[in-house]
Each structure stands twice: as C-alpha cells, then as structure tokens.
Specification:
alpha+beta; 3-stranded antiparallel sheet; 7 strands
Length: 72
C-alpha cells in the first residue's frame, strides 16, 4: 500500500491525497530519515496503482484518473 499526495507548484490549495473510499480512521506510521509520519489508512491505495500514478505524473504532469483524489 502507498499514500499519494499532490500540492500545486505555487503551494496554494487544493491539497490532494489519494483515497480508498474506506472510513478507516486508523493511522499507518511511515518512518523516513529518522522521522515518523502518520498517514491515514483511508488514504492508502494499492502499490501498483500508486506506481502507475507516479509514472503518469512524471511523464505528463497529470494526475491519474484511476486514483480517487480528495482534498486534504
């Protein structure tokens, strides 16, 4: 599972996060560079979908329509 987020280049809203349509209020703890970052489980999507989304974004600068995006 992976969590995706998107922020406009000018850092203005809307701030978007991936969503899996669940009402799960639990958090998953990611640990990177000595820092813990909680991420809501309801924003996690399958890794394969996340990889496709990243690939499309890098290639075209577009958000993958197959990902459900919601405002953070």
């Amino acid at each position: 599972m992976a969590g995706l987020s998107f922020v406009q280049p000018d850092n203005d809203p809307p701030y978007l996060v991936s969503s899996n349509q669940s009402n799960d209020t639990s958090e998953i703890d990611f640990f990177m560079n000595g820092h813990h970052s909680p991420y809501m489980a309801k924003h996690l999507v399958p890794m394969e979908l996340a990889r496709r989304a990243v690939r499309i974004f890098v290639e075209n600068g577009a958000l993958l329509a197959a990902v459900r995006w919601s405002e953070a």
